[in-house]
Amino acid sequence: MTGVSDSIGGAAAATDRILVVDFGAQYAQLIARRVREANVFSEIVPHDISATDLAAHRPSGIIFSGGPASVHVEGAPRIDPGVYDLGVPILGICYGAQLIAHQRGGTVGRNERGEYGRTDMTVAEPAVLLADAGAGVHGVWMSHFDAITVAPDGAVVTASSADAPVAAFEAPGQGLYGVQFHPEVHHTPCGQDLLARFVHEVCGCAGDWNMDSIIESSVAAIREQVGTGRAICGLSGGVDSAVAAALVHEAIGHQLTCVFVDTGLMRSGEGEQVVETFQKTQGIELIHIRAADRFFAGLAGVTEPEAKRKVIGELFIRIFEGAAGGIEDARFLVQGTLYPDVIESGTGHAAKIKSHHNVGGLPDDMDFELVEPLRNLFKDEVRSVGSQLGLPEEIVMRQPFPGPGLGVRIIGEVTPETVGVLQAADLIVREELHSAGLEREIWQAFAVLPDIRSVGVMGDERTYARPVIIRAVSSEDAMTADWARLPYDLLETMSSRIINEVDGVNRVAYDITSKPPGTIEWE
Ligand code: XMP
Is residue 201 annotated as part of the catalytic site, yes or no? Predict the structure, then answer.
């Protein structure tokens, strides 16, 4: 498998870029976000990058993130000292500021106590970075134990707090700036202005990076990469593959063919919507493979969750491969990899295909070069690109949906009958959530069909039928989740509609399990 070149991405042609050097911060991604909110492209690089590699990115400015280490501990992350000689302005945040002090003639002291949370900071000398904040006392977010006691050579101390005598410093002559507090978090009201001043005033970035420029530069980069070749893209119905396909289509038109494997395990109306949107509205060449029968045949008698996933994953791959093989000269594979996926790989420049991705984990031995036009973007930026490319809101704002689809929401055997019941119940959950205006607030809301029956009474008749379980969770990243406190009235409407409208269901329960100990999906 050939990896994607570093130059392809959401903003390959952007002239100004800020590199965020990650020293193990919780907030590195947030720093990159804030810089982008100041309309300057930014990306994260690992702290062990060499000065030469860093210079190759041609940054207009560098931000050293915070991190959990102490500069006094052996093995604490350092930066190649050559980075200070590149002539590129550097802003250190928390550990990053301490590292600058430590490496450039200042002193970092070990405090008796640290500062955590909202802290009053006194700005004595607003200088450049704190010019918007102005002299006086400002609330900032601190999270540190060590503190800079002597600023680096040539630096002016611009602010201090009770336990951080050097809460901010500036050494314009050396291009070095540092803040002990966290300007990237919302709890530091003057933080966004400070970051904006760094990138605009100090680094001289024009601030012309926006969604239009993402699309423009991505289109140029895709054209350069693919040339006259052909590309294929597996559509899953999810946001990421949809936006990646639309973007690549914008760049290379009919050189792109999308493959949509309809597993029969999608949400109600989803298959039709994908075909309608891509083939009819966007005019994208689409191979629509109706494979529900094959999936139901493969799943017959299979009840163990991992076995189900395996059957679904393998069938998907075989069918996708079959379709891809029929597209002559297809050398490029479009993937909807997002920036957080790239960072999580730990390299900052992931080139390998991940096993669980939009198209269900394609094998490594497929001989394609990857096109990953979203690999520099965050989810909300991807949604925004999708909207600008004319994708409908139902696709762009869609909640996450697992690759194996409804197959992991049906406990026990997956059959056309159980899928039909679940699709009907799930549609009601989604419709009612939408009517209540809660669709965007809730991370995921769906129905689950367990393999049990209970006794009920409907009319004057005894019933012995299935329950449906409603699952709705709030989450930031799906790693942890909490059950959503949906209004009782909403739950009641969902429940009575499901019982009245879905044949074979006589009871509705609400799942009140967080993750951990539960998972979001039931299987
Ligand atoms: P769990 O159930 O592990 O799910 O808490 C976390 C998030 O991942 C989604 N999910 C999947 N997505 N392929 C996917 O593309 C899968 O096999 C898969 N399994 C779970 C799930 O919907 C939730 O958002």
Answer: no
Closest CA to 152 of 192, 83, 96, 86: 96
Residues in the chain: 523
Known active-site residue 94: yes
SS3 state at 219 = helix
Q: Taking the mean position of all CA atoms in its chain, how far away is CA 471? A: 22
- Phi then psi for 218, rounded to 5 degrees? -65, -45
Helix (H, G, I), strand (E, B) or coil at 332: strand
Residue 10 CA to ligand 1 centre (angstroms)? 25
Q: Any residues with CB less than 8 A from the CB of 329 and at least 6 apart, and which?
A: 229, 230
How many angstroms separate the CA atoms of 189 and 140, rounded? 7
Q: What order do you get walking across the sheet with 369-371 strand by strand?
A: 285-290, 256-262, 230-235, 330-334, 369-371
The per-residue pLDDT for range 454-477, each reduced to its tens digit, is: 999 988 999 999 999 999 999 877
Would you say 146 and 109 are in contact if contact means Cβ atoms under 8 Å apart?
Answer: yes
Distance 245 CA to ligand 1 centre (A): 22
The per-residue DSSP string of 14-55 comes to: -S-EEEEEESS-SSHHHHHHHHHHTT-EEEEEETT--HHHHH
Per-residue pLDDT reduced to its tens digit, 56-107 = 999 999 999 999 999 999 999 999 999 999 999 999 999 999 999 999 999 9
What residue segments make up the domains of the chain, in order of their start?
A: 17-202, 211-396, 411-510
Token pair belonging to 433: 């959530």
Which of the residues 102, 138, 182, 288 is marked catalytic?
A: 182
CATH assignment of 411-510?
3.30.300.10
Indicate whether residue 520 lines ligand 1 (CB < 6 A): yes
CA dihedral 489, 493, 494, 499 (to 10 degrees): 140
**Can you tell me whether residue 63 is helix, strand or coil?**
strand
373 CB within 6 A, ligand 1? no
Tens digit of pLDDT for each residue in 252-308?
Answer: 999 999 999 999 999 999 999 999 999 888 899 999 999 999 999 999 999 999 999
Q: Which of 43, 184, 270, 381 is catalytic?
A: 184
CA distance 91 to 481: 34
CATH superfamily of 17-202: Class I glutamine amidotransferase (GATase) domain (3.40.50.880)
